[in-house]
Amino acid sequence: MSSSTHFPSSATLLPPPPPSPLPMADRTKPRKWFLGVFLLLALSGAVSGAKVVKELPGYDGELPFYLETGYIGVGDMEESQLFYYFVESQRSPTLDPIILWLTGGPGCSVLSAFLYESGPIEFNYGGYNGTLPTFHLNPYTWTAGLSIIYVDAPVGTGFSYSTTAENYAINDYKSVDQTYEFLRKWLMNHPQYLENQLYVGGDSYSGIPLPMIVEKILKGNNAGVAPYLNLKGYVLGNPKTDDYIDVNSRVPFAHRMTLISDELYKDAKVACGGDYVTVNASNAECVTYIDEIDDMILEINLMQILEPICKTASSRPVESIKGIRRSMEEDYEGFLAAQANPAYWCRDYNYVLAGIWANNKDVRAALGVREGTKGVWTRCNSTLAYTKTVTSSIPYHKNLSSTALRALIYSGDHDLSVTHIGTQIWIHSLDLTVYTDWRPWFVDGQVAGYTVEYINDDFTLDYVTVKGAGHVAPEYKPKECYEMMDRWLATYPF
């Protein structure tokens, strides 16, 4: 099967490519926007209820880093309020880059990224006795040299809320509009960061809205929308990108990882013609082989194939979570219903601590969460009224590849939900030029993964695998992912 057969046409999913970004000489001079920014602030009154957090329940003493939380109103009459956590770079905040970070789901709180991936503190797990969880400093925090704006987007995620019920109905386009508006207003409220290099990053389902947000920023800059955003690139980890490619790649991945036999893979490939997603019910032979594959991987953890799969309560029918078409949300959801089993450890048990901590009234008070705006905080909001209106973000990546941006795409190579095989397929579809061939990269003298660099005129894309990591790579390989980000932001070779 030719992989290009199933790439969607950009003409059907996307308006014509945006005009070329502003010349580099203009893109590095945002000072001229300052007057406009202050006028906009004065006229709109778009100042959030920001709070500098100096102490957090669970951490002993004053925080040794700058943490700010708050809300930014978006949409008509600012009825939707997006909650954020901002951590300033602990090195040189006036010079270091700043990144807006999103998380997946859709509907998973960015507090998950803050506590389990890249933030400056992490939970103490040893000896936990059921009381309020405690923290220690994260030695591999990305904020060592990077300022991060973590935002609970779209509305209904984490501590974000709306004053009207209809605003909770969200789709990909509305989510993009909200996040773009949030970023503009946040920078208007924090003009001291307007000259810093700006990146947009995220993982998992963020692979759909994030390239759309990046394109929207470029269009806004070209149209003279204030403030000018000093965008330099974007970062995506194990990103959901194309409905067909992402799911279809699970079968060859399962074969490569010896989860299915050579014979079964070959038979299924012939019978199904390499298409394991749009299976015609009349093709009984293909259906039979797909069922066999489903049985082989049913008890495999989609997020990290080497880790135990958590047994969780689910109200959804078994058929909806079976095999290669199993949804990522099924693995995200249900962790609070998990029954502790002393026979083995399960990663989902770690997530219970976030629920206990975020639902503590003293924690909410310390974070500045507005009373009465959120009931029970959940790591992933399974009741979010979200409509997935975009089935592929490949056309957006294609458009962005004609700009002067930098892109970092990375894959935990043991992720079965969004496989490195599928990610490489859509990257190849961009028709970029290989600048540096596939090669290992190292941390502490050991192979940390593999990398290849692509270029297209002024555009560069670094693709990196993280050896042994699962779906959200920094959770599994924090040191390696810290080194990856630090080197990439410094334009230092892997």
Automatic annotation (TrEMBL):
One of its GO terms (biological process) is proteolysis. Coiled coil: none annotated. Residues 1-22 are annotated as: Disordered. The lineage of its organism: Eukaryota, Viridiplantae, Streptophyta, Embryophyta, Tracheophyta. One of its GO terms (molecular function) is acyltransferase activity, transferring groups other than amino-acyl groups. InterPro entries: AB_hydrolase_fold, Peptidase_S10, Ser_caboxypep_his_AS. It comes from the Eukaryota. Belongs to the peptidase S10 family. This is Serine carboxypeptidase-like 18. Transmembrane segments: none annotated. Keywords: Carboxypeptidase, Glycoprotein, Hydrolase, Protease, Signal. Pfam families: Peptidase_S10 (PF00450). Gene3D superfamilies: 3.40.50.12670, alpha/beta hydrolase.
